[in-house]
Design a protein that fits this description.
A: mainly beta; Porin; 14-stranded antiparallel β-barrel; 4 helices; 20 strands; B: mainly beta; Jelly Rolls; 8-stranded antiparallel sheet
């Protein structure tokens, strides 16, 4: 297969693949899901830092001002697989999942002005529970709960360079993505028909975000990002089925209602420093104001990220040397979910990554990132989760 | 650095293969996690039961009386629950053929004796003191024309046809547990000079306590040991010869007719008569309209002493009223069969699981709770069941709490 065909196949697959669940955490069931870190594979390898890393190679959508640094059209995408181990102190359970997280197409229209369109997840729900519940004279039944999906958005963004400043704005058009819940009660005695309640939540609305980067010199830059709170409309559809067999599902009936859901305002800061070619360090801090979203039991969140990248090869414009990226980082964040004890959940992760150019002349880069981390504390929340996440990122440049 | 081209090519191919595979089939773990029940911040909804809810009202539905169409295996005789059951039999005696076989003419034949033999079916009889109770019956001569297709019920007026008959004097009946031998007077033979004589009988229930019994009909299979079709045995004399002639009934039919039937206070499920109990259950207000019903069962006692059936297929019908026509509409939701062989005592508890959708429709309001009817599926035989103390139980699950 030649390189041109490869590129078309990859682009077609990415275009046809609607980004769906970003399998994230068992804690994501209540609420609108776990907020997805909107960073590209390279930032993910650097502990999710990179708001200010404006080098024309940063596909992170967390800061739309990054777009202004792109000099050629490109496509960025991300895929991941992860394994989670969930423990309540006495029992543990392992689960694996994975999916396409999103992609962005970046299109410079003139020097210093760049547009972008993309499709990506904003939040994710990934929860499964199998619980044996005893019940009076009807016999035992097993309750299954499965939550999946998330809020997704088609995004349009623009970045513009003005002297040492880069500004950007992004609009998340929340048209896609559904949060699905399936509650099933299956009786041990098969004389009893199981029941199934499906709840799906679709969303529509808009949320803008803004970014600013100050490029002090070629080595140092700082960034500020902000998103105002937004209210989106959630349509709830509840389908109840008499059993799980196909003919029983035909006997289902549906209820529908609408309500407003608030997405939080957020603020972020970033800092990046590069030695010129070989070393780059970045640090980010962000805060989201979930406690103001109207739903009870939620907490504001903070996220701290720190990362470093080392590049082999040289700053040769013709790129005759192999430019391999080695990344490392760590991050810490808190989650907004309410837990039974009311304690806020914490999460930390260590990451490392490797980026390999697809061709020596810079047609694109393949990156693989491994993150190891933990969220929750069994002694506090009664549950904890350890995870190993491997991300695969692909960036390709259009000649 | 000499390995770089190989590394690059490998990475490129790995990327493409990975995206091809994973984009085609995103992977996720479908095996559910048993850990983390404490994270369910919402009420998952539970399982509730309504146990042994008695019928809030009952009534007896009478639709029609069927004329049993051949083939039927039973000829019914009796009087029970305000209904009388009668049977008609016709035997044909080809006198010309009988005489010719003996080398004579029909005019030379004289009848010496005339007997009709019926085979009883004890399992189809009412019981008394633990034994089949076959009550008294009378033998009449039908005074109107009939055949097996005669309708004994006028569906337009919902009334039974009065069938005229008169007692045959001089009849003697000898009975055992499985046989009845009816000795008829010789003038029971009707001859119209055509050479084909006939003997027609109407078996009429006698006075006294209710009873029900059945004899084998002419359509019953003789391949089954013990089955005995109604037979006439005639002894002729021609000159000094004695000729024995035996033949099975040419036609026979049974029907039932109301005789002071009072529907109140009874719950009869009958085939042939089309009696159907209609049961209504007032569901408790505590059942939420959006509950899913997981199981439903109706239970009642079968009063076998007041029932007569061998096998009785029945259906359970939801009752609705057509908004267009105002007619009552029956929709079958469950079928089953009562079989007498299933029961060991005289008042067995019977339970029938039925479609939960009926209860669900009632509680959700998608169908008015007009009750259900227990109806016979077929009218191939007369049979009925007396039920007592109907009640339903059902299990339902509460929907999970919305966020």
């Amino acid at each position: 297969m030649n390189t041109g065909l490869n590129r078309w196949v990859v682009c077609l697959l990415l275009a046809l693949s609607v980004p769906s669940a970003w399998g994230d955490t068992v804690f994501s069931f209540n609420g609108t899901g776990d907020p997805i870190r909107r960073v590209d594979a390279r930032s993910r390898g650097m502990g999710s830092a990179g708001r200010a890393l404006s080098d024309g190679n940063n596909f992170s959508s967390v800061n739309p001002a990054l777009l202004a640094s792109f000099k050629r059209a490109g496509l960025g995408s991300l895929y991941f697989i992860q394994h989670r181990s969930i423990s309540d102190g006495s029992r543990s359970w392992g689960t694996s999942d994975g999916d396409l997280a999103g992609f962005h197409l970046v299109i410079p229209v003139r020097p210093g002005t760049v547009f972008s369109v993309g499709l990506e997840g904003l939040t994710d729900v990934d929860f499964g529970l199998l619980d044996s519940v005893g019940v009076s004279t009807s016999g035992a039944y097993v309750q299954q709960v499965k939550g999946s999906g998330g809020i997704q958005a088609a995004t349009v963004a623009a970045g513009h360079r003005i002297g040492r400043f880069q500004v950007g704005a992004r609009m998340d058009m929340i048209l896609l993505g559904t949060v699905n819940e399936r509650w099933t009660k299956v009786f041990v005695d098969h004389t009893f028909t199981s029941s199934e309640d499906d709840i799906s939540r679709t969303h529509r609305g808009l949320q803008p975000s803004f970014g600013l980067i100050y490029q002090h010199d070629k080595s140092m830059s700082a960034a500020l990002t902000a998103s105002p709170a937004a209210t989106i409309t959630q349509t709830q559809r509840i389908r109840r089925y008499l059993g799980r067999l196909p003919f029983q599902r035909l006997l289902g009936w549906q209820e529908e209602s609408e309500l407003d859901v608030e997405l939080p305002a957020s603020l972020g800061l970033g800092f990046a420093y590069t030695t010129g070619y070989r070393w780059t360090v970045a640090a980010d801090a962000a805060r989201s104001y979930w406690s103001s979203t109207g739903a009870g039991g939620r907490s504001d969140t903070r996220e701290l990220s720190l990362g470093v990248m080392y590049r082999t090869g040289s700053a040769d414009l013709l790129q005759r040397d192999m430019r391999v990226e080695l990344m490392g980082g760590l991050r810490s964040r808190t989650l907004y979910f309410s837990t039974p004890g009311g304690e806020q959940l914490g999460e930390w992760a260590l990451s490392m990554g490797l980026g390999i150019p697809l061709r020596s002349n810079g047609v694109g880069t393949f990156r693989t990132i491994m993150e190891v981390g933990s969220r929750g504390d069994t002694s506090i929340q009664g549950l904890s989760e350890r995870f190993v996440q491997v991300s695969f990122g692909f960036t390709g440049w259009v000649k | 650095m000499t390995h770089m081209p190989i590394l690059i090519r490998t990475a490129r191919q790995a990327t493409l293969a990975l995206l091809l595979c994973l984009a085609a089939a995103g992977c996720s773990g479908d095996v559910l996690n048993p850990v983390g029940g404490s994270l369910l911040g919402r009420n998952a909804g539970g399982i509730r039961e309504v146990v042994q809810l008695p019928a809030s009202s009952t009534r007896q539905l009478f639709e029609r009386i069927a004329t049993l169409k051949p083939p039927v295996s039973n000829l019914r005789i009796g009087r029970k629950d305000g209904f009388a059951f009668r049977s008609l039999l016709r035997f044909e005696l080809p006198a010309d053929s009988i005489a010719a076989a003996a080398g004579g003419a029909a005019i030379d034949l004289t009848v010496d004796s005339l007997h009709v033999i019926l085979g009883w079916r004890p399992q189809e009889a009412t019981y008394r003191f633990g034994r089949p109770w076959e009550g008294p019956f009378e033998v009449h001569r039908p005074d109107a024309a009939w055949n097996e297709a005669t309708a004994f019920f006028d569906t337009t007026s919902a009334t039974e046809t009065v069938f005229p008959s008169s007692p045959i004097p001089g009849v003697s009946i000898t009975r055992s547990d499985t046989l009845a031998v009816i000795r008829l007077p010789l003038d029971a033979i009707a001859s119209d000079g055509s050479g084909l004589d006939k003997v027609e009988l109407l078996l009429e229930p006698g006075a006294g306590d209710d009873f029900m019994m059945a004899s084998y009909s002419s359509e019953v299979s003789t391949a089954v040991p013990g089955n005995r079709r109604p037979t006439i045995v005639v002894f002729y004399r021609m000159d000094d010869q004695v000729i024995r002639y035996e033949t099975v009934a040419r036609q026979d039919v049974s029907w039932g007719a109301r005789e002071g039937f009072e529907p109140d206070g009874q719950l009869l499920l009958a085939s042939g008569l089309r009696l159907s109990p209609v049961l209504q259950f007032a569901l408790p207000d505590t059942v939420p309209p959006n509950a899913t019903v997981n199981f439903a069962r109706i239970e009642f006692e079968l009063d076998l002493d007041a029932s007569v059936f061998d096998v009785l297929p029945l259906q359970m019908d939801a009752i609705a009223v057509s908004s267009a026509t105002g007619d009552t509409v029956y929709t079958t939701f469950t079928t089953t069969t009562f079989s007498i062989l299933t029961y060991e005592d005289s008042l067995p508890q019977v339970g029938i699981n039925f479609s939960q959708s009926v209860i669900r429709n009632w509680i959700s309001g998608s169908a008015a709770n007009l009750g259900m009817a227990l109806r016979a599926q077929f009218d191939s035989d007369f049979g009925w069941v007396t039920i007592r103390n109907p009640r339903i139980s059902f299990v339902y699950s509460i929907a999970p709490e919305l966020e």
